[in-house]
Design goal:
By secondary structure, the chain is α/β, with parallel strands linked by helices. The protein has a domain at 77-149: Ribosomal Protein L15, Chain: K, domain 2, CATH 3.100.10. It is built from 4 helices and 6 strands.
Amino acid sequence: MAEDILSQLKPPAGSTKKRKRVGRGTGSNWGKTAGRGHKGQGSRSGGGVHPRFEGGQMPLQRRLPKRGFHNPFRKEFVVVNVRDLEGFEANSVIDVDVLRAKNLIPKNIKAGVKILGDGEISTPLTIKAHKFSKSARAKIEAAGGTIEVIEGAQ
């Protein structure tokens, strides 16, 4: 039933136009130069200007003031707060794979996982991560848990 209807679908009248076929002889009014004019960069095959070209005017990205510094060697850590670890069972081991399985971190990690101290934790856990903040370290150990620093980024 649905297949019959799908095969009969047509766009509304007047909503589609036929493609303009250029370069099909002088009788079509779009022959010879095919709407490209005479000579110049725009008439050549592969010619034309890039989308940011402003006709020789100083480009926008060069006119605007530059500020700050972008460090190409910056390490981006995925952060997990202590409050996100509250739901785990007592004395369980929490590592990168467990955090990934619980959708607390994305599949691709650039520099590693850092545990931050926002929130509270009451269950003792063994947490394995690349970095820990001082407050997170204090809260985990105060709850009776342990931390293990994973060496090297992933």
